[in-house]
Amino acid sequence: MANNGEPAGFWSYTHRDDEIEEGRVRRLARKIANEFEGITAEELNVFIDKQDVKWGDEWRKRIDSALTGSTFFMPIVTPRFFKSEECRREVLTFSGHAKSLGLEDLLLPILYFDVPQIRNPDPTDEVMALVAQRQYEDWTTLRLEDEDSPQYRQAVHRLAMRLVEILERTVDVEPPPVALTDSDADEEPGMLELMAEAELALPRWAAVAEEFSKTIAEIGEIAQNANEDMQRSDSHGGGFAGRLRITNKLAEDLSDPVDRLGLLGNQYSTELVNVDPGVLGIIRQIESGEVSSEEEEQTREFFETVKATAQTSREAMGNIQGLADSTQVLPSLSRSLRPLSRKMQSALQQVMDGQAILDEWERRVDEVAGPDIHE
Known about the structure:
- Helix 4 (85-100) packs across helix 11, helix 7 (191-235) packs parallel to helix 9 (293-326) and helix 8 (239-288) packs parallel to helix 11.
- With 375 residues, the protein is mostly helical.
- The chain has helices at 15-20, 24-40, 53-66, 85-100, 126-133, 150-170, 191-235, 239-288, 293-326, 330-333, 338-369, and strands at residues 8-12, 45-47, 71-77, 110-111, 137-138.
- It folds into two domains: 8-170, Toll/interleukin-1 receptor homology (TIR) domain (Rossmann fold, 3-Layer(aba) Sandwich); 191-369, Methane Monooxygenase Hydroxylase, Chain G, domain 1.
- The longest helix has 50 residues, at 239-288.
- It contains eleven helices and five strands, in the order E-H-H-E-H-E-H-E-H-E-H-H-H-H-H-H.
- The protein is flat, with a radius of gyration of 24 Å.
- Strand 4 (110-111), helix 5 and strand 5 (137-138) form a beta-alpha-beta unit.
């Protein structure tokens, strides 16, 4: 296992993308690591296989206490990447921790298959937005080159040199200060201000999750009613004309709740992503022990609120997922319903992204204060 002070890179990709590329994705990781070692005479430990226990152990170790300028996170961006809940969670987790430490450059995406949506001026998908904010490496044409061609080898060299430059630039980066108080209104908010802001927002996030669940239930009821209408129409010989009429009515009835679902999902994930680095900074400062006894009591209350919200939201997520699964029949009813189904799945993914952030807060709180904080 790597030493925490040694350079390391975490390779995030979907196994199916590597399969259809006949192993080229994994080989690219090794080529970059070899080139880095050739340039620096220092080994770059690349963690590739997430099914390996070492990947998870080293990931948690570096995320929690050793995320320095020597730890890179390199997502291999493809359309399938954004459909992977695991890959999305890794981007959100790393990005929050890196930003809280002033080390955003350590997130280095490689655009492997083109994803046009990340070039939108204002992506509604928060994970796409995080990728778009970074100076990603465009590999969409290079991946078609022979791996031994001069063009491919030169591109590997450029990418390895970029890692070296990032190391040199970030080695002396200090974490953004999280002051106990805010002495200047023009400065960044202090720890207590950030804590108060998050504490006020946590119940709001729980309320959004509850409203999301209600809207999913509403959609499920509309779809069920349409399905029953279709069965009755078929039994009375309505034929395809009857089915088309019911389907068109269903699309019309679903339009408003699906749009509402999208707004709720975006609201849920956007706010959490924005406040994530500040909350992680708070937890890290509390972990360092640089708080007074009075502040310890305030932080304990804050921790309790974080855990309660994460648990409540997680319970709601179970209901949301079940209700969403019940609407999977929609695309099979009519081609006209497929766009609505895609909107629903996108909104569901955003809520799941938000839950991933809450889960990470809860995990860090448990490490800092212990899992029995309520007792």
